[in-house]
Amino acid sequence: MMDTPRLEAPGLVLRPLEMSDAEALFAAHSDPHTHQYWSSAAHKSVAQTAAYIEDTIAAGHAWAITENGGEALGRIALFQLRDGVADIGIIMRPDATGRGLASKALALVCAYGFETLGLHRIAADVDPENSASLSLFLRAGFQREGLLRGNWKTHLGIRDSVILGKVRQ
Questions:
Q1: What whole-number distance in Å separates Cα of residue 1 and Cα of residue 56?
Q2: Which of 3, 61, 135, 167 lies in the 20 to 30 Å Cα band around 114?
Q3: Which DSSP symbol is given to 130?
Q4: In whole angstroms, what separates CA 57 from the centre of its chain?
Q5: pLDDT on residue 2
Q6: Mean pLDDT, the chain, as a whole number?
Q7: Among 87, 155, 74, 164, which residue's Cα sits nearest to residue 126?
């Protein structure tokens, strides 16, 4: 497990993701619409979400997206791929969308990655039909860099990936 710090902005607290967040995040991972473009089908149990959280915590920096440090409304994670380069991923509960929390969380984590971890590049891999995620990353200053055809085998079949990237300024 990595040492993941608490990050804060007005109206937002990112605290280290915990196993106890499984029940709250099951609302995101079990929702077929929210999980549509995920690499796997919607979760069937809180235990499945807990296993996913355990893997996420082990793989990188992972935060619960909260308004005040309490209940997880979403999750954002940063996975370092190699020296100076990381992938980022985010999911929000349906009841927490439309409030700007994902945008604020993305900005905080990118700033942490560039300023504290010394990253020079953060990338996102988004399904071409996931217009909400594409919009989120583009608004955050990521640039569309390319399309990887047939990049994922998911519950929807073979899927392409839009690769978006942001580099340290």
A1: 9
A2: 135
A3: -
A4: 12
A5: 65
A6: 95
A7: 164
pLDDT for 12 equals: 97
**Cβ neighbours of 30 (radius 10 Å):** 17
How far apart are alpha carbons 166 and 169 in whole angstroms? 9
Nearest CA to 126 out of 102, 108, 104 is that of 102
pLDDT at residue 31, as a whole number: 94
Q: In what order do the strands lie in the sheet with 74-82?
A: 7-9, 12-16, 61-66, 74-82, 85-92, 121-126, 157-167, 143-154
Question: Token pair 């280290």 is at which residue?
Answer: 16
Q: Give tens-digit pLDDT for 43-98.
A: 999 999 999 999 999 999 999 999 999 999 999 999 999 999 999 999 999 999 99
Q: CB-based burial of residue 74 (10 Å sphere; 0-12 exposed, 13-18 middle, 19+ buried)?
A: buried
CA distance 158 to 36: 14
Spatial contact of 110 and 121, defined as CB atoms under 8 Å apart = no
Q: Can you list the domains of the chain with their CATH numbers?
A: 7-124 (3.40.630.30)
Q: pLDDT band at 132, cuts 50/70/90?
A: very high
